[in-house]
Amino acid sequence: MKKLTQAIILGALGLGAQHVHAATISKSLCVGSLSKTLYGTSTTGKSVTFWGYSDCGGGGMGGMGGGTATVPGPIMEIGVNDTLNISFSPMGMMTMEGAPYNGHTIHLHGADVQTMEDGVPETNGNMVMGDTYTWTPSAGHEGSYMYHCHVHTVKHLEMGMYSAIIVRPKNASGAFLNQLNANTTTAYDYSQNYILSTVDPAYHTASGDSVVFADYNPSYFLMTGKEGKSTAAPAMTLAAAKGKKVAFRLVGLHSTNATFQIKNGSGVAQPFTVYIRDGRTLPTAKTVTSLDLSPGQRADLITTLPTTSSTWYPQITYKKLRANTDGTYPAYATVYGKVTF
């Protein structure tokens, strides 16, 4: 009865099971160290050390290299009913803390997986020096997800060990559909992934049980790894056509509350429709001009561009926890994207 009821609900939403070609997607990830020069309100910049995931390029569990670490790490796309197999090798002392926080994992945030696949040391047998992770998302689970390290998360996520996994609908031949889910009303012409994150440089030099981890105060605010502090220097750009639909996938790996908006050149907020929250289709899509996104949340939405040429600025406004002691930093920090059409 439970399965029958679920099938009826999914069918009403246009998300019923489809006979599509399911693929097995194998990825090999490693960990590396990198540095970024971030500016915030400064004109000189500060070099901050990060740890990032990298694509080992087939190196498997024994891979010691291959690929360059990035923040965020590799963004993965899989289809409904596909099976994602991740082999993870966290070797490299430069990217580890001392015991008991040594090692790394991959936590598939928001995914319905078995406990042993969840990447949490306390429940996966303390597999922190290499493991494999498997996930097969089913129909109705389309949307944006994230993965991150779950060893001493307060430190390792802050260090940059995170990225996104996008679950997409497929047609009967196994090709991706340019839709947010199986419902054709979610069709789009263009898409971008906005991965939200914040940076407190003090966390990047502290370790263990330092009292620093009890006092989070980010100085830098990112969109998919870039600052994008003004409309003249956006973090993300997109060249689109007039009158087309653009999908934005918001992935909240930030540690302060944030708000997403799309504004035109005059600063007027433009409408967009939210179809999916946290990997589940909303019973009723919501058209809004502003969307709050707390840490760990995700959203999948679509906006329709006007039929006349212009420029819009999708943007994330992060809430500062407090101003700096000299009062020079505002209570909010905005990171900009840019869409021209």
Task: Pick out its properties.
six-stranded mixed β-sheet; globular; five-stranded mixed β-sheet; 341 residues; 3 helices
Describe what you observe in this structure.
The chain is mainly beta and 341 residues long. The chain has two domains: 21-180, Sandwich (Immunoglobulin-like), CATH 2.60.40.420; 190-340, Immunoglobulin-like. It is built from three helices and 19 strands. β1 and β2 (46-55) form a beta hairpin. The longest helix has 11 residues, at 2-12. The termini are far apart.
Topology, element by element:
Blueprint: H1 2-12, E1 24-38, E2 46-55, E3 76-79, E4 83-89, E5 107-109, E6 131-135, E7 143-148, H2 153-156, E8 162-168, E9 190-199, H3 201-205, E10 220-223, E11 236-239, E12 245-252, E13 258-264, E14 272-277, E15 280-288, E16 291-293, E17 298-304, E18 311-319, E19 332-340
Parallel strand pairs: 1-4, 3-8, 9-12, 11-19
Antiparallel strand pairs: 1-2, 4-6, 5-7, 7-8, 9-10, 12-17, 13-16, 13-18, 14-15, 14-17, 18-19
What gross morphology would you assign? globular
Ends distance: 50 Å
Q: What is the strand tally? A: 19
Supply the number of helical segments: 3
In terms of quaternary structure, the protein is: single chain
- Helix share, percent: under 10%
Instruction: Please list the strands of the largest sheet in the order they lie side by side.
Output: 10-9-12-17-14-15
Classified in CATH, the superfamily of the largest domain is Cupredoxins -  blue copper proteins
State the CATH class of the largest domain: Mainly Beta
Give the biggest beta sheet. 6 strands, mixed
**Low-pLDDT segments:** 1-18, 59-65
Q: How many domains in all?
A: 2
CATH A-level architecture of the largest domain:
Sandwich
Tell me the radius of gyration.
20 Å
Decide which structural class fits the backbone.
mainly beta
CATH topology of the largest domain: Immunoglobulin-like
Order of helices and strands: HEEEEEEEHEEHEEEEEEEEEE
